[in-house]
């Protein structure tokens, strides 16, 4: 998850999409590239594309333009990398899925259901004293619902990492696709 919860350095967050060969150890090589250079990955999401031999890595990292350029060049040099693209804010759509387990006594359920409805979230599990809410959205939406739910007693959070696609006709496709 992007660690922008304090609101600082949001402009230094960059979303990078990388197409790679879908092979054993490729993700470890990408992670090693970042750790060897002292860069942090704030969010990481990986999945197979429409071509089963190609995976798409979407990652969020921090840095100025010089650092971002170095990251792109280093990622491009990896033998299993097919293509690298910086997904610019405003030119791409990004979403993340979050599951939130919250304390939900009977007396507070109507309020919690109303919050979930406002954010187009779903209640995916409910027990005597707890509720699990599923919500998808951009960082602003997720931060807003978490801020509203915090006073009720957030017990646990699981996040997928951000996925993103460019707007319009521009695509990140390999020659294999």
Keywords:
alpha+beta; 177 residues; 4 helices; elongated; single chain; four-stranded antiparallel β-sheet; 9 strands
Any overview of this molecule?
Helices cover 28% and strands 38% of the residues. With 177 residues, the chain is α+β, with helices and mostly antiparallel strands. It is elongated and about 55 Å long. The longest helix is centred in the last third of the chain and has 15 residues, at 139-153. Strands 5, 6, 7, 8 and 9 form a five-stranded antiparallel beta sheet that branches. The chain has a four-stranded antiparallel beta sheet with strand order 2-3-1-4, with helices on one face.
Record the SSE blueprint:
Blueprint lengths: L12 E9 L4 H11 L4 E8 L5 E9 L2 H13 L3 E7 L4 E12 L5 H10 L3 E5 L3 E8 L1 H15 E6 L3 E4 L11
Antiparallel strand pairs: 1-3, 1-4, 2-3, 5-7, 5-8, 5-9, 6-7
Give a quick precis of the structure.
The protein is of the alpha+beta class and 177 residues long. The protein has helices spanning 26-36, 65-77, 109-118, 139-153; strands spanning 13-21, 41-48, 54-62, 81-87, 92-103, 122-126, 130-137, 154-159, 163-166. The two termini are 29 Å apart.
